[in-house]
Amino acid sequence: MTDRDLIYLDNNATTRVDPAVVEEMMPYLTELYGNPSSGYRFGQQISKAIDLAREGVAALLGCEPGEIVFTSCGTESTNTAIHSALQMDRDRQHIITTRVEHSATLKTCELLAKRGVEITWLGVDSLGQIDLRELEKAIRPDTALVSVMWANNETGVLFPLEEIAEIVRAKGALFHTDAVQAIGKVPVNLAESKINFLSLSGHKLHCPKGIGALYVNRRTKFAPFITGGSQESGKRAGTQNVSSIVALGKACEIAGQYLKHEATEVRAMRDSFEEGVLERISFAQVNGDRAHRLPNTSNLAFEGLESEAMLMLLDQAGICCSSGSACTTGSVHPSHVLKAMGYSDDRARASLRFSFGRFNQRDEVSGALDLVEGVINKLRRIAAAA
Ligand code: PLP
Question: Which residues line ligand 1 at a C-beta cut-off of 6 Å?
């Protein structure tokens, strides 16, 4: 199967690699195979390519290149930030996070709780927003880290990140944000921010899978998660994934050029799809804060239906979308994000996520609407006849 047979509306799960990114990385998979740590010119040439990629990532984030550490994925970046905060101060072994985080944070914190780290879980309201006063009150003298995602992968809901970072800094704790879904979709400028750590992942912004980065503010004390050689200025050991790093640099450069397109074109596609669903399909509802949301994401509940059945028929119809996050597909549990928002099991199980990207075309919206309407009507007819 190729993507020519599909309408791909699952860009929060992963994205198509931009051909310009493939072109940029190819030499580093073929003739430019030197080790960036080697002292001779063939190695130094590779090291220079990594430096350039670091500059590309830093430019998108509005930070200094020296504040970027390349990792293997968003999950590793998040684990690294959490690990570092706990390592740096033995007297601070308390973490605050939210109930709607991606499993990269959620599972890591659950595991740490079993090892004696105290975790405060912040709930969200029906729009998916946290209460900033509750957050402020939860910060203690022994709080090592507050970790709050920038944008939710399931609903697209955006947290008021800069405000959160200010609160955390004023209370003297460190702040990490899982910005895996935000980077490349909304503008980010770390130069003036109070964020200590930020995680991002290449495959959400048209770069290959298996490459990520962690922003570590230059004044933030840091302990590496992966130890060994002195790569990445001693912040992440292991010979670098050069081709993917080069790819990430290019992907970030292109993402910067497309930020306006995300805010206009991609948003317009998402909005016309969402409005079309609400108009044409009865008992459909949007999950999450529509006013504070990524421009590309629409999480919709189709009352009375089960996401599993909808996904199966949509797959047969050639539409890729998802229920919950891709990482938990296969689990029968209703989405922890929608549950945390106070929705019933039925509503959570009746929900689908559609996420658009810059490779979608406007004419796919009407095609997707017809197919989604057909699938929902068919399932409702079956349910009514049963
Ligand atoms: N955080 C969020 C919000 C995500 O959506 C994802 C991936 O779905 C991750 C972290 C994990 O990123 P990676 O797949 O690069 O480990």
Answer: 73-75, 102, 104, 149, 153, 178, 180-181, 201, 212, 325-327
Q: Rounded to the nearest whole angstrom, what is the distance from the C-alpha of residue 142 to the centroid of ligand 1?
A: 28
Per-residue pLDDT 10s for the chain (386 aa) are 777 789 999 999 999 999 999 999 999 999 999 999 999 999 999 999 999 999 999 999 999 999 999 999 999 999 999 999 999 999 999 999 999 999 999 999 999 999 999 999 999 999 999 999 999 999 999 999 999 999 999 999 999 999 999 999 999 999 999 999 999 999 999 998 999 999 999 999 999 999 999 999 999 999 999 999 999 999 999 999 999 999 999 999 999 999 999 999 999 999 999 999 999 999 999 999 999 999 999 999 999 999 999 999 999 999 999 996 555 555 568 999 999 999 999 999 999 999 999 999 999 999 999 999 999 999 999 988 98
Indicate the top mutation candidate among 102, 197, 205, 297 to test ligand 1's pocket, ranked by most ligand atoms within 8 A of CB. Answer: 102
C-alpha 21 chain-centroid distance: 20
Question: Residue 158: helix, strand or coil by DSSP?
Answer: strand
Eight-class DSSP state of 264: I
- Smallest CA-to-CA distance from 7 within 371, 255, 265, 279 is with 371
Bridge partners (DSSP) of residue 213 are: 70, 200
CB of 84 within 8 A of CB of 227? no
Q: Which ligand 1 atom minimizes the distance to the CA of 201? A: 15
**76, 204, 248, 337: which to mutate for ligand 1, most atoms within 8 A of CB?**
204
From the CA of 277, how far away is ligand 1's center (Å)?
A: 27
User: SS3 for 122?
Assistant: strand
